[in-house]
Structure formats: structure tokens, C-alpha cells
Amino acid sequence: MEHRTVIILWISIILVLVQNPSNVQGRYHYHKKSSKGSQSPTPSPESPQSPEPVAPPSTPVAPSTPVVPSTPSIPPNVPSDPYPGDDPTDCIFNVMSYGAVGDGDADDTKAFRDAWKAACAVESAVVLAPADYCFKITSTIFSGPCKPGLVFQVDGILMTPDGPKAWPKADSNKQWLVFYRLDQMTFTGSGTIEGNGQKWWDLPCKPHRGPNGSTASGPCDSPALIRFFMSSNLVVKGLRIQNSPMFHMKFDGCEGVHIERLSISSPKLSPNTDGIHIENTKSVGIYDSMISNGDDCISIGPGCANVDIMGVTCGPSHGISIGSLGVHNSQACVSNITVRNVVIRESDNGLRIKTWQGGTGCVSGILFENINMENVMNCLLVDQYYCTSKGCLNQTSAVYVTDLTYRMIKGTYDVRKPPIHFACSDTVACTNITLSEVELYPYEGELMDDPFCWNAYGTQETPTIPPIECLQDGQPEALAEGDDFWNRKHQTEEIPKSPLRLPPPPTPIRFGKQLKENMPSLQTALPPELANNVIRLYRECIRRAKYVGHRQHNTQLVVDMVRQQFKKNMNETDPDKIQQCKDDAARGLINHILFESEKMSGRKFSKT
After folding, report:
1. DSSP class per residue in 434-500
2. Is the peptide bond before 82 cis (omega within 30 degrees of 0)?
3. Fewer CB under 10 Å: which end of the chain, C or N?
């Protein structure tokens, strides 16, 4: 009886399995084409056929809706028990299996190209350069189209040939690694991309590298380390990239780029070693990265829109730059750029916009917010007279710069240059510049109180330190009269609004037109003959106090104190008595602010 029961149970189980095979058929094999690249020591002689290439568009067009970089596809979890054809290494293409040596001396270029070719035809494939190896490869173009979800993972060291003499004559000396016509690709890993740039930097054609510190003439091409061209939905993260001969990372003609947790470094005096350069590229996010180099930390070239930069530390470097734009009388448009929560330290520039005379186009919708400066020259810089030689001619046309917002910009500056410098075109003024909570103090030495403005129009929502009286209120005459200034001067493409921009700031209060409570304009609150002198006195107070506490003493306090001092002498005509009155007002203001600052800080200031 027991044996019969056992037999009946076995028959029942078999019948259930025959009628219900869904547990096997339900398994989804994401990779439809299996590759044994990671199991065979030599690559297959027959390479998989790639899809028919599609010609890239001639001009990238910004999307009307936000484009979020796609995350590489991840196959669904499956049980750990082995099934035929379900080897977990099927999608990993280890370059060691394609003949790479990884000793830092052998040329491993062919192994990388073969691994790429095999992986390109497989969805969610991984080209793996494993840890504990050093791979040297020559200039290579990794081209698509490829199946989506391709990952290029560098866990070891990937490096260039060592300098110009080791560079193969047949290879391009303008770029090293190029990723071309790809979609949904990720470049990642825990390894290092080494550029071996020292011998390139020392070429006599580089700035000040020739005899006696000169710069030799002649061609001076040097390779950009990594370039993404005509690609979309890219992710770059986790890598250390260092010592590039020229730009470390460059994006040209791309759309949908997500960059995070990169470490980019080269020496402070390495020439033209921009950290991240984007050009003709839209919908870009750069986050939580550290960049130190010999040129721009991040540079934004023509044709860029909808760029969000946050959590980046720059320096030493040349800061974050928009431009240069308009070279050789070209048209350049840049719009909707947001830079937030950034630290810039020990840099030759902070936040810079640079354009050439003679260009056309527009820079608009720029927000710099919550930026900390540490010993930076040219903290806030608009330079519409950018020129790299002595032969630049004055020209009337210029790129139009408008809608710039600087909010919560604080820290210290190098006193060798004014911390604020707005040099706008003679004929095309900069407009709608907004300053709010800008507080910059000298890193060493005395407070420099002469910010420079030329043909710049805008608004100070709060008092600026150092004070900036050169920013003109309102609009240039042509714009104020309703003239279609922009369309008349510059015919450009329509610039889309950014999906990455923060909500617009509240309507600012313009000094001299709509007075904010407790913050009147000195020019309107005082008699004209006294206004400029009061501004000078207030600057002197700031210089003498040398303490942040003076921010508590708003313009109203200054106005009231000076009014009291002059009230009984408003009709005085004797020049000597008027000067004495001014001196008394200065001493009173200075001593009052020193006294209040001592109470708040507990520090003792000398009175003069």
C-alpha cells in the first residue's frame, strides 16, 4: 500500500509539471544573441553585423520636452541555478579574452576594438577593462550605432602613448578616445584614464614653453583625451581622469548627457586642459565632481542649452566659463544655464562669460546661485572684448548678453584684479543683470572697492560687497523705447526654455524707481551734491571695519546719520566748513560701525 501511494504521488507531480511549464517558459533571456567572448582566449573570426548606420542630423535641435539620460537597461533577476545558454558572463566582454596584455607596455588597441565590436551587437553588453592591469591603446574611434545599454567599464588603468614621439604617425593627434553615434551608453568604472600629458605641455609651441619663456609659432595640435560626438542619452560616472594633453572630456553634437562623481585633475600650469567642454550639446547635467586643471574647469561653447551644474568643486582652474563665443564673426547661442552649490578655489577666474567682437547671437537665461569663492581672481566676469592676440580689431556687432542672475555669491577674492568686472560691448549692452546677496572680501590686503562696469544694465536686489554703483538701472535707450533691438541687430534661432532651470526669481526692486522698505537709493534719498560723498564714506566704513557685521548697517542707517550731520548746515557755503562737516560725518560713521562690530564680534578694532 505504501509503495502504491508513493507511485501515485510521483505520477501526480509529473502531470502537474507537464501541464504547467510556465516556470521555465516564463524566464526572460534579455540577451538574444549569446557571445562567448569572456570564455574564449581568442576572438571569433566572424564579427557580428551591426545595424545599418543612420546619418546623423546636421544640426542638433533642442527638444521641446525634457530629455533625461537613459539608464542602461538591466536584465531582470533570474534564479541562480544554471540553465543552458544562461551563462551570466554572456554579456561581459573582457578585453583580456581578446588578447589584451595589460602590462602598460604592450599595445592593447586591437583587443579593445575587437571586444567593442562584439559587444556592440548585444543589448546591455559590458566592455570590461579589469582592475590590476594597465592598458595602453592608441587613438581609437568606438563607433555605433550599437544595441542599447552598452557599458564601457574601466576598473584598471587605461592610458595613452607617452607623448608626441610615441604617438603613431598614422593616428589623429587631435583626439584619443572617441565615442561616435551612440545611444544609451554608459562610460564608468573605478579605474583611471591616464593622459600622459607632460610631454605635450612642454612643446615649444605651448604658451611660454619656448626658448626664454617664449611661445613658438607653428601647428600645435594636441589630443583631447575623451570625446563624445553625435551621441545621445549618455552617462559618465565614477572615473578618475587625469593629465590630458588637452581637453580632458569633450561633448560635441550630443543630447541628454548625465555626468556624476568624476575626478578630473592635471597641474595648475598645464595649458588648455579644460576639464569638461560641451559644444552644440543640449540637456546636460554635471553633478558631484571634483575638477582641478590648467584651464576652464567647465567650459560651455556655442550651441548649448539646458545645462544644469550642481555640487562641483573647481580649482585650481580658470573657473566656469561660457565661451568663448562669436570668434571669426560667427553666430553663437547659449541659453538656460544653471550653476548651483559650487565651490571655486585658487582660480584665475570664477564665473566668466567671454565673447569676441564681431560675433552675433545671444547668451540668455543664466543663473549662478550659492557659489563659494576661495581666493579667486575675476570672481564675476563678463568680457565682450575677449582676444588671444594683439591683432584684434574693434567691431560693432557683438553677442547679446542678457538675463544674468548672480545670487548668494560669497567668499574671498585675489586683490590683483577687481572681483566684479562687466565689460560689455559698446553697441550691444548687457541687460537684465541681477545681483542678490553678493558678498566678496579680499583674501589678503585691503578691500578693493572699484568694480568695473561698461554699458551694463541691471538691478541690485540687496547691497553688494564691494559696492557696485557702476551698474546702470533700467534698459538701454533702444530697449526702453520699445525698439525691436534684438531682432534688428541679430537674427538667431528661437531659444527654447530649459526644463532644468529653477523657477524665475521674484520681480526685483529697482533702486531709484521703486524703493524697498529700509533700503532707499543714496542717489534719491540725499541731495545730489552729497550722494557721491556718502557712498565714498560708506565704502570707507566697510574698509575700516573689516568685519561682516557691517552688513547689519543698511543704507537707511547711513542716510539717517549723514542727514543728522548735515541738517544744521544745509545752507553752508564756506568750502572749509563744508569739508569739516564731511570729515565729521566720516568719523562718526566709521566709529559707529566699529563700535557695533565690536559688540557683535567681540573683537577690538582700532579707530582712526
Report:
1. EEEEEEEEESSSSPP---EEESEEEEESS--BS----SBPS--HHHHTT--HHHHH---PPPPPPSS
2. no
3. N
Tell me which of 318, 490, 550, 553 is the catalytic residue. 318
Is 258 an annotated catalytic residue? no
Q: What's the distance, CA 355 to chain centroid? A: 17
Has 318 been annotated as catalytic? yes
Query: 358: phi > 0 → left, psi -120 to 50 → alpha, else beta; which?
Result: left
Distance CA 436, CA 468 (A): 12
Among residues 558, 529, 402, 540, the alpha carbon closest in space to that of 466 is found at 540
Instruction: Tell me how far apart the alpha carbons of residues 377 and 420 are, in angstroms, rounded to a whole number.
Output: 9
Count of all residues that appear for the chain in the document: 608
Amino acid at 509: I
Q: Could you tell me the mean pLDDT of each successive run of 10 residues in the chain, 608 residues long?
A: 58 51 34 38 37 39 39 37 46 96 97 98 97 97 96 98 94 95 98 97 80 70 96 98 98 98 96 96 98 97 98 96 95 97 96 96 97 96 90 89 97 91 93 95 76 93 89 78 42 41 35 32 46 54 44 48 58 68 64 60 52
Among 155, 295, 383, 449, the one annotated catalytic: 295
| C-alpha cell read off for 514 | 521703486
Q: How far is CA 537 from CA 110, 385, 540, 544, 566, in A?
A: 72, 33, 5, 10, 14
Question: Do the beta carbons of residue 136 and residue 106 sit within 8 Å?
Answer: yes
How far apart are the C-alpha atoms of 381 and 359, rounded to whole Å? 18
Q: CA angle, 526 as apex, 525 and 532 as ends, to 5°?
A: 120
Q: Give 212's contacts (C-beta < 8 A, 6+ positions apart).
A: none
Contact 363, 402 (CB under 8 A): yes
